[in-house]
Design goal:
2 helices, mainly alpha
């Protein structure tokens, strides 16, 4: 995510503590949060897709998804 978008998320969070956000600001905040979480989930899944478990006997097994995807 672009640094400017992260700064805007933080700015909106700061504004929320000081005053009520306008409907436009709430919509912008929700959109930025969704984008941030989507990118975070994608990165987490990439890490997990490349994770291996090593058993005590030295064999490595690819981490399996529980949902079967």
């Amino acid at each position: 995510m672009e640094n400017s978008k992260l700064k805007r998320i933080n700015e909106l969070a700061r504004l929320k503590k000081e005053r009520a956000l306008t409907p436009d600001e709430i919509a912008e905040r929700d959109e930025l949060r969704k984008e941030y979480l989507d990118e975070w989930r994608k990165g987490a899944m990439e890490i997990l897709d490349n994770t291996y478990i090593q058993t005590p006997d030295g064999k490595k097994h690819k981490l399996q998804r529980k949902d079967g995807k």
